[in-house]
Design brief:
Elements: E1 9-13, H1 34-40, E2 41-45, E3 56-65, E4 68-73, H2 75-78, E5 83-89, E6 93-99, E7 113-118, H3 134-137, E8 143-148, E9 163-164, E10 169-174, E11 184-186, E12 198-200, E13 206-217, E14 222-230, H4 232-235, E15 247-252, E16 259-264, E17 267-273, H5 286-302, E18 309-315, E19 318-324, H6 329-332, E20 338-342, H7 349-361, E21 368-369
Parallel strand pairs: 17-21
Antiparallel strand pairs: 1-13, 2-3, 2-5, 3-4, 4-7, 5-6, 8-9, 8-10, 8-12, 10-11, 11-14, 12-13, 13-14, 15-16, 16-17, 18-19, 19-20
């Protein structure tokens, strides 16, 4: 294929525009099914930005260490947007991840980032195929397939289901000079919101991370092609270590009721029991709240030094317990920076706040029942 095929390219991040459908016929691909792809592909919802429609990106589960999972995505999915992200795992499981400093989670030059969450659930991990360079990894015409979660265009938070076509497409030619690592050029249509999604080979191995569109204008017609970052950029990178102390906070689903648990060595202490169905009417069941709040607390614990103050306040018309940056406490004047959990209208916010502070700062056996 002639190199002039991509000249002059106009490079566009997938997460920023909607794309036209490609015209290259898909190639048959086997050994990977939609349920397998669904199990490892993650929907990432960004914090809602004022005046903007809901948006996000995609990711893929690439690592598990005990109860901690790593999700690989593009840096541009999170860059410049601090706040609480929502990760949707295996379609229905939802986790809140606090990201006060998105740039710290990025690789640097290459457009990759890693988000982490904790869970006692057993999730599938993508099988990685890593080679030392792109020449070994792929050849022009090699069949591949890809997946991801497109954004909604109706201005609401709901996003469409996973896009995955088992017929796939094919690799076009390497783009070895791209400064952000987008070396694998392919024919599979990648829509807005699918940035950070996986690219698989015929054996179902993860070979790259999607994230860019190449628009070619030869003067006669405009064509769209797509680019991904080979997975060896991840396997050769050591993401920044997660700061930890001796305690872990997680959602324990082993009992009759979901509980947020603090684990210290071999000892486990239930700090919140999730019982109320009050918020289930809007989709926040006790199980979902347990996972979301446990992950927020664990992330805040790991980011100590950034969030110092826990406050009781009102946000979106609801009483809430929030965390804020101690250096901005006066300027914020009670504005919620990181939501920990909301409090039912019939609950005494002062009592809940006082008990929660005691749980965080002492060895009390008090348990909040929410």
């Amino acid at each position: 294929m002639k190199r002039s095929f991509f000249i002059p390219p106009i490079i566009v991040k997938v997460g920023l525009i909607s794309l036209l459908l490609g015209t290259i016929a898909p190639t048959a691909i086997a050994q990977i099914s939609r349920p397998q792809v669904q199990a490892v592909t993650v929907r990432i919802d960004r914090p809602r930005e004022p005046g903007k429609a809901a948006a996000g990106g995609s990711g893929v589960l690439v690592k598990q260490e005990g109860d901690r999972y790593s999700v690989l995505t593009n840096c541009h999915v999170i860059k410049g947007i601090p706040g609480t992200y929502t990760l949707w795992i295996n379609g229905n499981d939802r986790y809140a991840v606090s990201v006060p400093d998105p740039g710290r989670l990025c690789q640097g030059r290459v457009d990759l980032a890693v988000l982490t969450f904790t869970s006692t659930q057993d999730y599938s991990i993508a099988s990685l195929r890593s080679e030392p360079n792109i020449d070994v990894l792929v050849n022009e015409g090699t069949p591949i397939t890809a997946a991801g979660f497109p954004n909604s265009y109706d201005g609401i938070r709901t996003r469409p289901d996973l896009i995955f076509d088992p017929r796939g497409g094919s690799i076009l030619q390497p783009n070895k000079t791209d400064p952000e690592g987008y070396e694998l050029v392919h024919s599979i249509t990648t829509l807005d919101g699918m940035s950070g999604g996986p690219v698989f080979d015929v054996a179902g191995k993860l070979i790259a991370i999607n994230g860019r569109t190449l628009r070619s204008n030869t003067g006669r017609a405009e064509s769209y092609y797509y680019a991904a970052i080979p997975i060896h950029y991840y396997t050769n990178w050591s993401p920044p270590p997660v700061a930890t102390d001796n305690a872990e906070i997680f959602c324990d689903m082993s009992g009759a009721e979901p509980m947020t648990v603090r684990e210290l060595g071999r000892d486990k202490f239930a700090i919140i029991i999730w019982r109320s169905e009050f918020w289930s009417r809007i989709g926040f069941t006790p199980e979902i709240r347990c996972h979301m709040v446990s992950n927020v607390l664990n992330n805040l614990r790991e980011e100590r030094g950034k969030f110092k103050v826990v406050i009781g306040t009102t946000t979106n018309g609801e009483n809430a317990i929030c965390a804020i940056d101690a250096t901005r406490q006066v300027a914020l004047r009670g504005v919620c920076e990181t939501l920990i959990f909301t409090v039912e209208p019939t609950e005494n916010i002062v009592r809940v706040y006082q008990e929660f502070i005691e749980i965080l700062t002492t060895t009390t056996t008090i348990r909040l029942i929410l």
